[in-house]
């Protein structure tokens, strides 16, 4: 067998060994989604100068629940996300496109009366 063919076979075997099982890839994707939300909540809360307890009071949630969301330890429901968006005075935007995920809070702009 020619060296170049042996090298190709070796590289193919290595790629097969390094291929991630589908369940692991799915878990990794879910973690990335959770982390994107956690970062967005933390960033908006910090922007408003709120503590976790203050955000909990504003949203009707517990400080522990806010901590779990920011620590990406939970998968929040849509009603919980709606409470967070209201409490953070923002619109929650989630863009899912293949492997790309973007989670942002867009602040509501209030006109001065």
TrEMBL record:
Coiled coil: none annotated. InterPro entries: Cro/C1-type_HTH, Lambda_DNA-bd_dom_sf. It comes from the Bacteria. GO terms for molecular function: DNA binding. SMART domains: HTH_XRE. Residues 41-95 form the HTH cro/C1-type domain. Pfam families: HTH_3. This is Helix-turn-helix domain-containing protein. It comes from Streptomyces boluensis. The lineage of its organism: Bacteria, Bacillati, Actinomycetota, Actinomycetes, Kitasatosporales.
């Amino acid at each position: 067998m020619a060296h170049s063919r042996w090298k190709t076979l070796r590289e193919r075997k290595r790629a097969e060994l390094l291929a991630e099982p589908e369940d692991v890839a799915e878990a990794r994707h879910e973690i990335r989604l959770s982390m994107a939300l956690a970062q967005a909540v933390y960033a908006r809360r910090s922007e408003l100068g709120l503590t976790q307890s203050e955000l909990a009071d504003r949203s009707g949630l517990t400080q522990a629940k806010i901590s779990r969301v920011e620590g990406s330890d939970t998968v929040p429901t849509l009603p919980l996300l709606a409470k967070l968006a209201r409490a953070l005075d923002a619109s929650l935007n989630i863009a899912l496109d293949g492997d790309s995920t973007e989670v942002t809070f867009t602040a509501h702009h209030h006109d001065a009366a």
